[in-house]
Specification:
Blueprint: E1 8-12, H1 18-31, H2 38-47, E2 56-62, E3 65-77, E4 80-92, H3 101-115, E5 120-122, H4 130-136
Parallel strand pairs: 4-5
Antiparallel strand pairs: 1-2, 2-3, 3-4
């Protein structure tokens, strides 16, 4: 059943969220047609709880169910005193999309970035991700940058 505009709490990921996070994470990977090893998924999970690692996770919880996730990190910048915040992953369970959950996750990361004195919050998406881009276009303009990648290993 589609749930429109239910009350959603955005909170830090907890160890007890493992199964719910894993289901959402797999949905995210499936959406991007990506396969990661179980070891990489375990490493990603552990990093969220490592205070020495610059990777953070929030979840959206509605009616006692974890329905969305976002991961973010901070980066220094030669162009900014406060650096930038990179929103790396954003995913909402398909039954809960278009109800404001994605926006609530972005808004919370934005609050965190502002509190950390970041001058920019940014993220990437596929040019073909038209559904998500409807939401993203409400936040800002496409940067116009072209991303280049050099694959250094197969991980």
């Amino acid at each position: 059943m589609l749930k429109w505009f239910m009350k959603v709490e955005i909170r830090l990921l907890k160890a007890s969220d493992r199964d719910a996070w894993l289901a959402l994470w797999q949905g995210y990977l499936d959406f991007y047609k990506t396969i990661l090893t179980p070891a990489q998924t375990d490493l990603t999970w552990k990093r969220f709880f490592d205070p020495d690692f610059n990777s953070f996770a929030l979840v959206a919880e509605g009616e006692g169910e974890v329905i969305g996730l976002t991961h973010y990190s901070f980066q220094t910048s030669t162009w900014s005193d406060g650096g930038y915040c990179y929103l790396e992953d954003l995913f909402v369970n398909s039954a809960h999309r278009s109800g404001g959950t994605g926006a609530a996750l972005i808004d919370r990361v934005k609050e965190i970035a502002l509190a950390a004195n970041c001058s920019r919050l940014y993220w990437n998406t596929d040019a073909t991700n038209s559904t998500a881009r409807i939401l993203y276009d409400k936040y800002g303009k496409v940067s116009g940058k072209v991303q280049y990648r050099i694959h250094l290993n197969e991980n």
